[in-house]
Amino acid sequence: MKKIKILLTGLLFVLVSSCDRDAILDKSPLTEISEQDVWEDPNLVASFVNARYSAIGHGWAESWQSSVVDETYLTWSRGCEPLTQGYVNPADLGRMNGAWWGWDNRAWATIWNNISNCNLFFERVEDVEFSDEAEKDKLIGEVTFIRALMYFDLVSRWGGMPIITKAYTLNDREEFLSVARNSYEDNVDFIVSECDKAASLLPDNYSGADVGRATSIAALALKSRMLLYAASPLMNPGTNELVGYTSADASRWSLAEEAAKACIDAALNSGYALYNQYGDVKTNYTQLFLDGGNSEVIFDRQGGTSADDINLSYLDQSNGPNGYGQWGGNTPISELVDDFEMADGTKFDWNNPEHSADPYANRDPRLYASVLSDGDIWKDRNVETYLIADASGEITGGGQDTKYGQDNWNTSKSGYNIRKFMDENYVTNSWNFPSTKNWIWFRLGEQYLNYAEALYMQGKETEAKVALNVIRNRAQMPEVTDSGADLWDRIVNERRVELCFEEHRYYDVRRWEISDDVLNRDATGVEVVLHPDGTKTYTPGILVEQRTFNAPAMYWLPIPIEETNKNVNLEQNPGY
């Protein structure tokens, strides 16, 4: 659906985890639709389900999740520092518990509120008389998927959660405030079973206004990602049963393989396909994220606005080079940019004189659709992040997109700006956004990478390369022929570049247990200098931010202190 509207406001919203308010039940005024009305009218029940979609989280906001890992740096402070500087704690989770400005629906309390409303739906829907039982089953399937997705969003950040399937009332307050966390294994099993149930009740796809609703393919995609995470080293075994399995089991990779393959096969059989509408890779990869509802999208959070009514297309203003009147925002760092390969499939290397003399030439074309570098064409001119030196080498000025340009407080410290997701047709400072942005939760491209990883982990290297090369072929990059540890490095890097800024890296570096390496590195950028003879030199390693990752605690987020204060049975995560 182009926009899933909330047709009901002030209905029954049951607050599960956030009990700061005295009332758990919030009923609308008697002059509006009553709670009883909702559960007597199938149309109002459908509207109640629509509201569950609007409560699904999304990416972006002002501080992207990419700015707390080795992808980007946020030009201005919005809660990233607790994660990047290693002082996240139960009283300060930074942007990982709601994302601050431009609220992303990902806060602990917001997710639990949506879960609780899903539970309310399940308690009431069986008593509603539907003239079409198939419609009832479809709504049950949709809410089953949404609740599973909400649980996944919690479990992937905090580990095992209390598995709650009832809607609490005021009379249940004592029971609610004494619930304990279920094991990580229990949560994985619950999410997987819910995905299976949803897949059995939902259609493969929709048309018209219903595009955007949960499908059986979306349920399979969620199952695939959950089982991939569950098979990963961080959880095998975990520090304790709340954040992993009590013992490792290599067969979990087989489950992840089967789930990814099932999703890919079902998607292809239902008309989904990798987006490949343009021969030019830069154009194709750009439009993949601007052409809403395209063939690659398995499930996206639609609606165009955040929970606090911030237009998601606002990212076109809050990111981008300062010289255009854009606000810098989440700026790519060299640690990511340098990982985009050369066009011939070899590694980029600053120590290679040919590479360092012209570092943005002949690179993986996805770089040009993901990052704006000095000299790239953007809107009506070339990006100018260069400084200007005189004959003595002294810096005397700079291009339009440096501290010498307009709005210099928004200048990128790294020398790079975001290109991915951005609509070049947006007129800066007009606030007239040319396209509605929907956050893609699942796309087909990810499934091939899930499949490749699960295959590799079982020693099935030939099949893993086939899956990996499906993605590289679309990017017109040379096929991978490596084996052993070198093949693993290629799989890791392919996820890094293909899925950059899509909120995978945060979880990938944790589940692979490499965060204490890659996230303990400072964020750096590049300095470009234009000399009087017209040549440019490039100096890498310019400090953007000193970063610290405190292992092992930061592999998981701490439970918010207000939650453990209310419920002593809600055990805190290790290290906090």
Low-confidence stretches: 2-31
Secondary structure class reads alpha+beta
| Main β sheet profile | 4 strands, mixed
**Level of helix content?**
25-40%
Strand order of the largest sheet: 8-7-11-12
In round numbers, the mean pLDDT is 93
CA radius of gyration:
24 Å
Overall strand count:
12
The percent range for strand residues is: 5-15%
Q: In DSSP terms, counting alpha (H) and pi (I) runs of 4 or more, how many helices? A: 20
The outline comes out as globular
What oligomeric state is this?
Answer: single chain
User: How far is it from the N-terminal to the C-terminal residue, by CA?
Assistant: 42 Å
Notes on the structure:
This protein is α+β, with helices and mostly antiparallel strands and 576 residues long. Helix content is 36%, strand content 9%. The protein has 20 helices and 12 strands. It has helices spanning 35-38, 42-54, 81-84, 108-125, 133-158, 173-176, 184-201, 216-231, 252-269, 281-288, 315-318, 334-337, 353-357, 366-370, 444-456, 461-474, 484-498, 505-511, 515-518, 561-566, and strands at residues 72-74, 297-301, 330-332, 371-372, 377-378, 381-382, 386-389, 395-398, 417-418, 439-443, 523-530, 536-545. Strands 8-7-11-12 form a 4-stranded mixed β-sheet, with no helix packed on it. Strand 5 (377-378) and strand 6 form a beta hairpin. The chain is globular. The chain starts with 34 loop residues before the first helix and ends in a 10-residue tail after the last helix. Mean pLDDT is 93; it is low at 2-31.
